């Protein structure tokens, strides 16, 4: 074997050994992190708490509509005033309230100052050109303006495709698309069903 071939062959063995060592190191780190997470999860007292966290107290149920509103998980991330604004805007535009909340939850998590890297702005993550096409002008970072634009756009999507997955998908992909159900639409419909 020539010296050049020997160097080349030893380089291959060296590189394959590097890959093997890297794979072993990654596997051992994952195993170590998994075991450490399980040990933290097992630590605690008889009430389910730990020295760092108290055990969750059982929820206090109220009578009537307030119990249903208090039990909704989506309100935990939205302030009551923003939650009420979304409900009022959806009712004003004739949009299903649960679908409106699902879209807003997915798009911005009820954050009026949200913006995307693609240029979508506000609570409904509406593009400024789409807002202008719906007749809405102004600052989309203001909750009322952003909700007005998003509810008008959602109303047009529902009018075009019906109250289904295709309408929720069209809110995300654009109204003038093919009108098919996407993963976004399925997620929005599932979330809307859970919010009812």
Key traits:
196 residues; mainly alpha; Lysozyme; 2 domains; 8 helices; globular
What is this structure's SSE topology?
Blueprint: H1 3-42, H2 65-71, H3 80-93, H4 97-108, H5 128-133, H6 143-161, H7 165-173, H8 183-195
Biggest sheet statistics = none
Tell me how many strands there are: 0
- Structural class designation: mainly alpha
The CATH class of the largest domain is identified as: Mainly Alpha
Count of domains:
2
Listing every helix as H and every strand as E from the N terminus to the C terminus, the arrangement reads HHHHHHHH
**What proportion strand?**
under 5%
The CATH architecture category of the largest domain equals Orthogonal Bundle
The averaged pLDDT comes out at: 77
> Assembly type of the shown chains?
single chain
Helix content class? 55-70%
- What is Rg? 26 Å
| Alpha-carbon distance between the two ends | 75 Å
Uncertain residue ranges: 36-76
The number of helical elements comes to 8
Q: What general outline do the C-alpha atoms trace?
A: globular
CATH fold type of the largest domain: Lysozyme
Characterise this structure:
- This protein is mainly alpha-helical and 196 residues long.
- It has two domains: 1-35; 77-195, Lysozyme (Orthogonal Bundle), CATH 1.10.530.
- It is built from eight helices and no strands.
- Helix 6 packs across helix 7 and helix 7 packs across helix 8.
- The chain is globular and about 60 Å long.
